[in-house]
Amino acid sequence: MLAFGGNPFIGVYSRVSEDVGILPDTYADARETIEENLGVSAVICSVGESAIVGSMCAMNSTGVILPSIATPDEITFLKKLKNVCVINDKLNACGNNILLAERKALLNPEIGKKAEKQIQDVLGVETMRGTIAGIKTVGMCGVVGRKALIVHPKIKESEKKQLKDFFNLQIFEATANLGTPYIGACVLVNSKGALIGNRSTSIEIMKIQEALLAP
To answer: How many domains does the chain contain in total?
Structure first.
């Protein structure tokens, strides 16, 4: 359970992969908690001089996707850690609009073709455009675990089948932070563990744990 300065929407302000975590200076006091619980090296960095790091970037073990509003200093710093893909697209909140796994990425259907090609080339992932629960900001509607995808509870059956086939993962529906369906805004996940917004109920936590421990 975690909050940033009393704010339980930890996925808005931080982004993690298997080895690295990024969080803004505003919430640097959470660095040790992220490192200990998720087994990552956490670094302090903004994106586009903004604290909403989780909304602004997407990341996996291979690289990090940044919007063109990222500053030269931010790009240079993150290049020391991972491959960096800077996309110049009207949808500049990359974390909100891209649901990124190790080898696959679900994109907001409105992301430009040039940006999609960059993502494919730099991160070496297969991409698909789609929605979750009819919502285009797919990065906030889901989180990718080791063997499961946790998604907005109002996902359509057609979307569920499409995502299951594309990611080759089990699909679990869940909320966090007292019924918030935007699970990506509330949870930080990698194969080593999870941090969940501290307003989540015991039932919500159990459902998320069930998904992450899926065989």
So the answer is: 1
